[in-house]
Design a protein that fits this description.
Number of helices: 0
Radius of gyration: 17 Å
Strand order of the largest sheet: 1-3-5-7-9-11-13-15-17-19
Mean pLDDT: 92
Structural class: mainly beta
Shape: globular
Low-confidence stretches: 1-17
Number of strands: 20
Distance between the termini: 42 Å
Helix content: under 10%
Length: 256
């Protein structure tokens, strides 16, 4: 069953009217948007999407429908963008996607927005602004891939694996810039054993969790390094049962 609850993040517009719609094929496509507000759907294959400026919505694979994801490359310019590496609504294992979003209030999801499936090994880079980055599924079961998340300045939420629903964590790397960030190595609100994650947070009052934020599962062997600021660093689960891993925490100046 596909879960049907959708979480809206700040900066996402319910009544946004998109200026241009671009749809790919089942092959490997190169798709370009405009400087306006675009809706680009890659369909199948290993696609390259460049949506340019504006408040864009980019989907590496299908807007609706099941299917495993391709290895897609999404580049969205400045603006409040919503980028999905694989399916918007649909089950399927994720591909190894690259998402590069510019400045703005962006939401970047490495795999499915709503749908079950194991995650691919995704690479997410978000520019300045208050961004929401999810390495694997936003809402859906599946084991996590080995993801890399690099978020620039702003108050960011970075989740290495699933935002909601069950799955074991992958071995993720999260690097967040200056700002008051929340970095979660594994699941935000779900059960699953943790992967061996690395979290490096910049200056600001950060909250870093090596394993699950809300959920049970044995912890992985995590490394957390936090910059200047009043930080909270937890090697294992914030709320949830499970044996702890062998974690290493290095905190800079501040009331940590």
């Amino acid at each position: 069953m596909i879960p049907t609850t959708l979480t809206l993040f700040p900066g996402q517009l319910l009544n946004q009217v998109l200026a241009d719609t671009v749809t790919g094929t089942d092959g490997d496509d190169k798709l370009e948007g405009t400087d306006g507000d675009d809706d680009i759907e890659g369909k199948g294959g290993d696609d390259k999407i460049d949506s340019k400026g504006g408040n864009d919505e980019n989907t590496g694979d299908k807007n609706e429908g099941d299917g495993d994801g391709g290895n897609d490359n999404i580049k969205s310019g400045d603006g409040n963008d919503f980028n999905r590496g694989d399916n918007e609504i649909g089950n399927g294992d994720g591909g190894d996607d690259v998402i590069n979003s510019g400045d703005g209030l962006d939401t970047n999801i490495g795999d499915n927005e709503i749908g079950n499936g194991d995650g691919g090994n995704d690479n997410i880079k978000s520019g300045d602004g208050d961004d929401r980055n999810v390495g694997d599924n936003q809402i859906g079961d599946g084991d996590g891939g080995d993801d890399v998340i690099n978020s620039a300045d702003g108050n960011d939420l970075n989740i290495g694996d699933n935002n909601k629903n069950v799955g074991n964590g992958g071995d993720d790397v999260i690097k967040s810039g200056d700002g008051n960030d929340l970095n979660i190595g594994d699941n935000n609100d779900a059960n699953g054993n943790g992967g061996n994650d690395v979290i490096n947070s910049g200056a600001g009052d950060d909250f870093n969790v090596g394993d699950n934020r809300f959920g049970s599962g044995d912890g992985g062997d995590d490394v957390i390094k936090s910059g200047k600021g009043n930080d909270v660093n937890l090697g294992d689960n914030f709320e949830g049962n499970g044996a702890g891993g062998d974690d290493k925490i290095n905190a800079a100046q501040g009331d940590d």
